Amino acid sequence: MSAGTPRPALILDGLRKEFPHRRSLFGKAEAPVRAVDDVSFFVQPGETLGLVGESGCGKSTLARLIMRMMAPTSGSVLVDGQRVDTLLPSEVLAYRRKVQMIFQDPYASLNPRIRAGDLIAEPLLIHGLAKGAARAARVRELADQVGLAASSLTRFPHEFSGGQRQRIAIARALAVSPRIVVADEPVSALDVSVRAQVLNLMADLQAERGLSYLFISHDIGTVAYLSQRVAVMYLGAIVEIGPARDVLRRPRHPYTRLLLEAVPVAHPRLKSRRREVLRGEVPSAANIRDACRFAPRCPMATERCHIEVPQPRTLDGDRLVACHFAEDTPDLPKGLAA
Amino acid sequence: MPVATDLLDIQDLTVTFGGGSSRVTALHGVSFDLRKGETLALVGESGSGKSLTALSIMGLLPPEGHVAGGRVMLGSEDLLTQSRRDLVRTRGSRVSMVFQEPMTSLNPVLTVGRQLTEGLEFHRGATRAAAKARALDLLKLVGLTQPERRMRQYPHQLSGGMRQRVMIAMALACEPDLIIADEPTTALDVSIQAQIIDLMLDIKERLGTAILLITHDLGVVAEMADRIAVLYAGHVIEIAESLTLFDTPRHPYTEGLLAAVPRLDVLVAGTTARVRLAELPGSVPSPADRTNGCPFTPRCPIATARCAAEMPPMTPLDAAHSVACWERAP
Questions:
Q1: What is the pLDDT of residues B119-149, one digit of tens each?
Q2: B146 touches chain A (CB under 8 A)
Q3: What's the pLDDT tens digit per position in A178-213?
Q4: Are B267 and A248 inside 8 Å of each other by CB?
């Protein structure tokens, strides 16, 4: 990192999480499942890094590791230059003032028996940030910032629509004035017409507060809207990372390209193209061998891909791609790449 | 497109829930038609009534639901007045359904093979051996590898994408004229979704099966639909051919919905500045809060006093495009 660029808000360095494989009664122990396998990236202050991948690729495990909801097998997480993975249990609470999370399902992540105002006050209480009248004033201020009417604060979660519930969840996350927000599919459970409200709110709050977002989603359109940079995850590893527009316009990893081709078109005029279909399904993370993890499904795979793990390489200046043949990846068909 | 002949004609379908003072109307006089071999998408958000429409066609409304009026004509028969016995014969044989969640709609204690042959034996009177041979063909048709092995497997042994293929095979078993697909790809990953969309397009092309596609996902609609009917709060508010609807939507709700979705192609092609997404204010009203007026009034940028008082009727703009809006089709 050259001088002059700000220190990243979040750095992951060689992060790895293994889950022991279930052992059969007489069989020998199998290799553990590598849910997150040597993941390294950074997020700058005020930046959104979009994390894209299909189910089972390890994106939610990654979020849990960053939130310190579980400990990594190896590697480190740094927030503001401070190591997170070695925190003592007594230090985790203080850490969570810096990093907060928004979950996918606002129906499941809010306690149904607690009123909206108390839900927003809860983090202030837990972290001992404001008392009495000051706390009440802070709750009203937060509610106002996320677009909730002060008069609605006495209501229970079930009395709100999905979009409003997600606003409550955002107000809770912002209550402790974090620097980083990890958002795991924050709009996936919402109606289409309400998603734009929440996405715009997140963009506004970021501009006002200089927040960093790690925005996790399977919906590439949403990621493209909010993110400056995009990371693509497959079977526990980042296969491509770089500026959002470049990665989505000219993907260099064959998985990124096939994933983009699979995204339904935005307009029926574009549908005449016959896409190249990503064949098969994501294999279990237990089956990773010493090879490119995408090789079994890759249309470009050669012998080398089956015997040698591709290391991430820098391409086009600020892009990292883990593919032996990234230069040969064909461009997206016209129309989709516009 | 071949000569358009109506396969399904729904007129004024009205469905209510509950009784007495707690009675709410969930579908308000829904009308549309579906031609042979056509894919019509019913698009709407949660609470719009799109799934209820499908359940009404299949005679599968929950016990507290009640059809208060209208007709569902399949050919010359009204499915709403069919006897129970005839309805059972129609279901699965002439109309079949693919549900969103294949894990909950497949029977977990029967093998895939048994679930496929069951319908063939019941509806077609096939022998065990004939049904089994046909089931194998169906599994091949929907692109499942190792069909003999799949026949012996149980749903939990299959992945989500494979289960949805089995659902589609079951729906095709008796060569129905119409398949109702209720959010068929919503529970699937994007790469599996693309496979299932391609499969359904392929089946439509090869077998000429009409599809009533129910979804909230405008991308899936753009890929699959010939025509689109937009539902809002239990009303059909716009119907048009797919290209027309995407190019020149006329109802302010349709406009807002299309503008609120981030378009990957536009975002990637755009210049450096991030364009703010258009927002539709507020959210879908609950069925209990509905008035006599247009249900979109509180969120509508062009609403007038008349809109709050009186629901506009569906008015044709041309032969293929109708809209229910006082301002756009007076």
A1: 899 888 899 999 999 999 999 989 888 999 9
A2: no
A3: 999 999 999 988 888 889 999 999 999 999 999 999
A4: yes
User: In 3D, which of A280, A273, A270, A275 has the Cα closest to residue A301?
Assistant: A280
Residue B77 is part of which domain span?
6-94+209-323
Give domain status of residue A2, yes or no: no
- C-beta separation of A70 from A17 below 8 A: yes
Q: Please count the helices (runs of H) and the strands (runs of E) in chain B.
A: 13, 12
Q: Is B54 left (phi over 0), alpha (psi -120 to 50) or beta?
A: alpha
Give the residue numbers spanning the domain of A110.
Answer: 10-18+33-249
What CATH number does residue A226 fall under? 3.40.50.300
Nearest to A259 among B191, B246, B276 (CB): B191
Report whether B246 contacts B240 (CB < 8 A).
no
Instruction: Please state the domain count of chain A.
Output: 1
pLDDT of residue A28: 63
> Please, are residues A182 and A101 in contact by the beta-carbon 8 Å criterion?
yes
* Residue A269: predicted pLDDT: 83
Q: Which residues pair with A212 in a beta bridge?
A: A180
> The domain that contains B70 carries what CATH number?
3.40.50.300
Can you list the alpha helix ranges (DSSP code H) found in chain B?
50-58, 84-90, 102-105, 112-124, 128-141, 147-152, 160-172, 190-207, 218-224, 242-247, 252-260, 264-269, 305-309
Asked, for residue B303, whether it belongs to a domain, the answer is yes
CA distance A226 to chain B (A): 8
Report angle CA A82, A85, A91 to the nearest 5 degrees: 70
Residue whose structure tokens are 């040969």: A328
User: Which residues on adjacent β-strands are paired with residue A11?
Assistant: A42, A78
In a domain, A297, yes or no: no
Longest CA–CA span in chain B (Å) reads 67
CB-nearest to B260 from A193, A260, A335 is A193
